[in-house]
Structures are given as structure tokens and as C-alpha cells.
Amino acid sequence: MRYLEFDEFKEVGDPQLQLGMKFFSFKTFKLACRNWGIQNKRQIRFTVNDRKRCICKCQRFKSSNYEFRIFASHVGKNDSTVKIKSINLTHSCTKVNKNYHMTSDWLVEKYIEQFRVDPNWLVSDIIQRVKDDLKFHISRMKAWRAKKKAMEMMNGDEKSQYLKLNSYPLELQKTNPGTTVKMTQHLGVFQGIYIYICLAPLKNAYNPGCRPLISLDGCWLKGQHKGQLLVD
């Protein structure tokens, strides 16, 4: 018998869990269970979770006869593939209005394409979208954290980008010999105060073709690390 394999990229919304379904790892199996619980408004938990097996149960229903339960373990001794070996999706408890598995990371994973299309997606619109799609209400702080993480995922972390400025002058002088770069630093760490760059082609063009007049234009940096950018 050929069993269905779970694809975490295609079945993010409402995975159709069934007996014999195979997963790449226990991490993928637990992701599928969490997604199923969120989509069906059920709070699930993992009562057994080790390297050999994993049991998913309902958080609220305690009966041993008709309890929601999914048991998964490795297919074989030398096979790391995880397989559902027993499953009971029956629920006798009421649906939940909050689910602690719906984290900001989960929201980023689900709506990352929407963040790419609309980087200025408002926090209030994120809350409304989750309410329309999943019938859950999330706090403004959780929606704000999801947006912040999505922006960092797409644009990169500003703090880590500043750490790369030490190698930036060397790259400029390597590709544009004669370029002048001056940067305030202390023990190899960028202080975020001043950085001056004058590319060699611009420097060489000042004398033969430019008037002896220098004007400055600037703008304020409104990101996480404030500052001012001046361009002549």
C-alpha cells in the first residue's frame, strides 16, 4: 500500500491527517498537528515527545475512550521517516478561541507572501485578516512582532548589516582604486557616528568638469538605528 506523504509547503493551512501518512521528521509531524489544531480551532498538546515516538492529544478532553489522539513513530529501525500509526480525530469538547501554537513565527510563515506584496501592511489589517481567515483574535503586540520578523526576514537585520561595514571600505577601494573612505570605529566595531565616502570617479571629475561649489542634501534615517545621511 502506498501511503500519502506530507508536504509542509503545500499543506500549511489545513493538513488532511490520516492513518499511514509519512513525514520527513518529528518536527514536520508536530508542525502538521499544530496547523491542524489552529485550522480546526482545537488546542492540542504533545504528551509524549522523544526521539522514537510522539503522541498528540487534545488539551481539554480527558476521557480515555474517545479521546483525540495521534500516535507517530519511525517507519523502521534504520529509517528516520515518521509515520502515523494510529489516529482518532474525534472531538467531544468545545472549540477554543485562543491557541498558544499561533505564535508570531507561525503568522510570518503563513502570511509571508502577503508581507512581500505589501510591506506597509498595517497591524490592524493583520488582526482583521487573521480574524477573517481563522476566526481567531490576536493582540496588537503579536501582530506587530509578526510584521517586525517578516521585515527582518525580507530586508535583513539592520544590526547585523552594520557589523559588515568594517569590510565595506575594503570592497570599495578594491573595486574603485583611489576611493576615500573614513569611518569612526573603535577596536574594529562601528560606532554608528560618522562614515565618509568619496568614490574615485567622482573625485577625478571634480577638477576638470565641476565648478568650485559643493552643496549638501540630506535626509533623516527613520529605521531602528537613527541618523542622518548627507550627499554632496
From TrEMBL:
Domain of life: Eukaryota
Protein name (database record): Transposase MuDR plant domain-containing protein
Organism: Stephania yunnanensis
Taxonomic path: Eukaryota, Viridiplantae, Streptophyta, Embryophyta, Tracheophyta
